Amino acid sequence: MKIAVLGAGAFGTALGGILADKGYDIDYYDSRLEREKLSDVLADAKYIVLCVPSKAAPYLLPYLPKNKPLIVATKGILSDKAFDDFKDYMVLSGPGFADDIKAAKNTKLTATDDRIIELFETNYLTFDKTNDKRGVLMCGALKNVYAILAGLEELEPNTEEHARFLTDVSEEMKALLSANSAQPETVDLVCGKGDLKITCAYPSRNYEFGRILCKNPNAEPEKTVEGISALKRIKRGEIIVPIEAIKLKDLMSRSDKWA
Q1: Residue ranges per domain, the chain?
Q2: Is the pTM of this model over 0.85?
Q3: Nearest 5°: CA angle at 228, between 224 and 230?
Q4: What was the pLDDT predicted at 249?
Q5: Helices (H), the chain
Q6: What is the structure's pLDDT at 223?
Q7: Which residues of the chain have pLDDT under 50?
Q8: 126: exposed, middle or buried (C-beta count within 10 Å: 0-12, 13-18, 19+)?
């Protein structure tokens, strides 16, 4: 069975490696190639795995077939509206580092469909499960935004202040999911609290950018910081921000120079 993996970066090749080890025929798409190559990669593929950066995803989605099963492994997509035309999509997310997966270290992710578990589960890669695709997508984007705030407030991991921040943010995320017709309990899965914890600390690029902003409010990121684009979309009204989201609203008011 052929599976098309769109995105040949660290995470895409980590997931593709699992599939290849299981005997599937894997074909990667690299965005640096001509667009005509995409049609070759998609041809005869049973599944499509989306692993491109979140900023690139909107440009790629219009070229994908809407009737093939799509596994969205790209984190940072705030809204599920981009997938309205897809007849069969599912989401894979959580606190998994590509290097850990490639090294076969124990990792747990969140899946929204049993087919993801069937394809990717190994003795080192396990899953919790929900049918809340919208909530899983939101968690994957919101944790990046809150990681910037954690860095901006100079919160040191493994301190009581940092732990309180994570607790407060988890409650805010639940309010955000609820206000946007997602399931607040999704935050309790590894795609929520688990991913939030590791993103609000080093070596997260979002957290590091927040630490830089604390010293220089006019700083510009040297690397891609997914939380910036997510925050811009929040400020444009892509999701509903309830009154309970105090920390998020505070960050929105402080971000005019960079988001």
Answers
A1: 2-129, 140-254
A2: yes
A3: 110
A4: 97
A5: 10-21, 36-42, 57-60, 98-102, 114-120, 133-152, 160-179, 195-199, 205-215, 226-235, 246-254
A6: 80
A7: none
A8: middle
Helix (H) or strand (E) holding 62, with range, is none
DSSP secondary structure code for residue 150 in this structure: H
Closest by Cα among 92, 135, 131 to 111: 92
Closest CA to 140 of 213, 85, 206: 206
What pLDDT sits at residue 221? Answer: 86
Tokens 């069937």 correspond to: 118
Question: Which residue(s) pair with 29 in the sheet?
Answer: 6
CATH architecture of 2-129: 3-Layer(aba) Sandwich (3.40)
Structure tokens at 100: 């850990």
| Kind of pairing between the strands at 107-111 and 89-93 | antiparallel
Q: What is the pLDDT of residues 188-222, one digit of tens each?
A: 999 999 999 999 999 999 999 999 999 999 888 88
